[in-house]
Structures are given as C-alpha cells and as structure tokens.
UniProtKB/TrEMBL annotation:
<dbReference type="GO" id="GO:0004053">
    <property type="term" value="F:arginase activity"/>
</dbReference>
<dbReference type="GO" id="GO:0006525">
    <property type="term" value="P:arginine metabolic process"/>
</dbReference>
<dbReference type="GO" id="GO:0005634">
    <property type="term" value="C:nucleus"/>
</dbReference>
<dbReference type="InterPro" id="IPR014033">
    <property type="entry name" value="Arginase"/>
</dbReference>
<protein>
    <recommendedName>
        <fullName>Arginase</fullName>
        <ecNumber>3.5.3.1</ecNumber>
    </recommendedName>
</protein>
<dbReference type="GO" id="GO:0005829">
    <property type="term" value="C:cytosol"/>
</dbReference>
<dbReference type="InterPro" id="IPR006035">
    <property type="entry name" value="Ureohydrolase"/>
</dbReference>
<dbReference type="GO" id="GO:0000050">
    <property type="term" value="P:urea cycle"/>
</dbReference>
<dbReference type="InterPro" id="IPR023696">
    <property type="entry name" value="Ureohydrolase_dom_sf"/>
</dbReference>
<keyword id="KW-0464">Manganese</keyword>
<keyword id="KW-0479">Metal-binding</keyword>
<dbReference type="GO" id="GO:0030145">
    <property type="term" value="F:manganese ion binding"/>
</dbReference>
<keyword id="KW-0056">Arginine metabolism</keyword>
<dbReference type="Pfam" id="PF00491">
    <property type="entry name" value="Arginase"/>
</dbReference>
<keyword id="KW-0378">Hydrolase</keyword>
<comment type="similarity">
    <text>Belongs to the arginase family.</text>
</comment>
<dbReference type="InterPro" id="IPR020855">
    <property type="entry name" value="Ureohydrolase_Mn_BS"/>
</dbReference>
Length: 325
C-alpha cells in the first residue's frame, strides 16, 4: 500500500477528521437547508472519506438541530432576524468545532445556512491560536457568490447568513449580554487574512466595507480575466505558505447550472470544475485545517437537488485530497 499523503502540516495526526453535521436554517428564511447534512451523508460522503481517502472519522452520528437551544421568544435585535437562535446555535457549534480542532483533527462541518460559519471559524481560530502560539493567525478563504459581510446596520434583509464575516472579523460587535457578545478576540480573524473567491452579488454597503478595509477579493470578473489557475496563485500567495487555512465554501458560488438547489442562487458563477479546482488547490497547500460546506438546500429544486448534493460531495472530496489521477 502507498504511504499516506500529507493531508495537512497543521494537523496533529495525518488522517484524523472531526465531522459536525448542522441541520440549521435560522440564518435565513427558506426552510430545507437543514436537510442538507443528511442528504450529503446519505449520498455516501462519510464512507467515501473513510474508504477512498483514508480518514479516521470522529462523528457523533447525529445531525444537530439544536432544538433544545431555541429561545421561546426571539424578537429582532439591531434588525437581525432570529438573533438569539443563531447565537445559541453558533456558540454551541463553536465549542464542538474547537473540541475537534484542539485535538489536531481536520474539522469538516456540513451546514446548514452560512450563519453557522460564526460557530465553525470562531472554533478553529481559537484552537489554532492555542496550538500554534499567540502570533499565529489562521486565514479564511470564503468561496461564495456573496460577501456575507453586512453588519446588522448595512443589511437590508436582516438575515444573519449575510453577516457572519462581519461578526468574525469584529466589524460587527456586541457587548456581553447581547446575542453575539460571546465572540471573544481569540475567536476572531483579521480582515487581512480573509480572501474571497467567486463574488458576483455584493451589496452596496458591503462594497464599501471591502474597499475601506482593503479586503482581498477575487470576483467572477477576476476569474474571467485571469482564469481560475492564476486566481488561486494570487489568493494563496496573499495568504502565504505557513498559515493554516479554514475554507468556507458556499455552494451558491457555483453557477446554478451545477448547483441550482440553494437559497440565493445567482447566475454567472463558477463551473463545477472551477469549484473543484479551488478545493484541490487549497488541499495541495497542505495548510487546510477546516472546511465548511453550506447552503445546499435539497428541498428547493426537485430536479436539481440531487446534482447540487453531488456537487457538494465533489467539493468536499477535492478539498480532502481526492485527485483526478
Ligand atoms: Mn454565503
């Protein structure tokens, strides 16, 4: 048998993977995205990661809906919808992800809407700081049609799945006692360590935020101009070789031709191969420590649901080391 390939230089062991399945849809208004983890698992994802890619998988066997954490009442706060529910879920998820990451495991989280990244990224950021030392900061690659960096004040919809990056970078903050007051400094990431790929539906207020903070972003315009190969060279060059990477992949980054069954589909997106290529390149760095796959909603499209799930499985496999040859 071949010697196992190096999966990530920042993991304690070469092949340990913590899997967290999050059936939560409260960061936006359309039901169904909570069914994605089960659809992905039923399509054989776990067996493929174990048998084909040789991961030892730590999975508690449940899709977490966190119903026990749901507040009896959840009125809007700073215009945010379901603020206490999203806060409670992400705070708990942050602990689950942290528990895997501090053991030196790769952490794979299957969402759920993109608000759950408040939990996943805060969890890995804290664990990486503790494991590698205070000067060592994690980078985030956010692959998405949207920037998800609205503050509660710039958001027009109030849906928190459009705000996770603002809370994770500290551009949006809350005090102790407010819903997102639990997010500590050691759980945040710097705007300088954030890279976007695939953007094409960015709100006016978000464009201002991206410009004012000098945030590195490769839109579909950049993909068209340079090709995905050059874009990945530039994106990974910005991050540097010796930095752990958390990849947060929103399936709506793909064009609806390949991933139609998602809550906020936008035409003019990445091809399936471009999405896979991004995941392959990030894997090849040997620096990937965590992956989120979010916003697959199997209930929206009768025809397209299966292919959207298949696209999601493909992205995960590529990010975890699958290769064409
Ligand atoms: Mn998103």
């Amino acid at each position: 048998m071949d010697a196992p390939t190096i999966k990530s230089k920042f993991l304690t062991t070469n092949n340990e993977l913590g899997l967290v399945a999050v059936g939560f849809s409260g960061g936006q208004c359309k039901p169904g995205v909570d069914a994605a983890p089960m659809a992905l698992i039923e399509s054989g994802l776990v067996e493929q990661l174990r048998d084909d890619l040789e991961y030892a998988i730590h999975y508690d066997g449940q899709v977490h809906a966190y119903t026990e954490l749901m507040p009896a009442a959840d009125p809007d706060h700073r215009g945010m919808k379901n603020p206490r529910a999203v806060s409670a879920v992400t705070e708990q998820l942050s602990k689950q992800v942290y528990a895997h990451a501090k053991e030196g495991r790769f952490v794979l989280t299957l969402g759920g809407d993109h608000s759950i990244a408040i939990g996943t990224i805060s969890g890995t950021a804290k664990a990486i700081r503790e494991r590698l030392g205070p000067g060592r900061e994690m980078a985030v690659i956010w692959v998405d049609a949207h920037a998800d960096i609205n503050t509660p004040e710039t958001s027009e919809s109030g849906n928190i799945h459009g705000m996770p990056v603002a809370f994770l970078t500290g551009l949006a903050r809350e005090k102790a006692g407010e819903p997102f007051g639990w997010i500590g400094e050691d759980q945040r990431v710097s705007v300088k360590k954030l890279v976007y790929i695939g953007l094409r539906d960015v709100d006016r207020g978000e464009k201002k935020i991206l410009r004012e903070h000098g945030i590195k972003a490769f839109s579909m315009h950049d993909v068209d101009r340079h090709g995905i190969g050059k874009v990945m060279d530039m994106a990974l060059g910005w991050i540097g070789r010796d930095t752990p990477i958390h990849l947060s992949f929103d399936i709506d980054a793909l064009d609806p031709m390949w991933a139609p069954s998602t809550g906020t589909a936008v035409r003019g997106g990445l091809t399936l191969r471009e999405g896979d290529f991004i995941a392959e390149c990030v894997h090849e760095t040997g620096s990937l420590v965590a992956l989120d796959l979010v916003e697959v909603n199997p209930s929206l499209e009768e025809q397209g649901a299966a292919e959207t799930v298949r696209a999601g499985v493909s992205i995960v496999r590529c990010a975890l080391g699958d290769t064409l040859l």
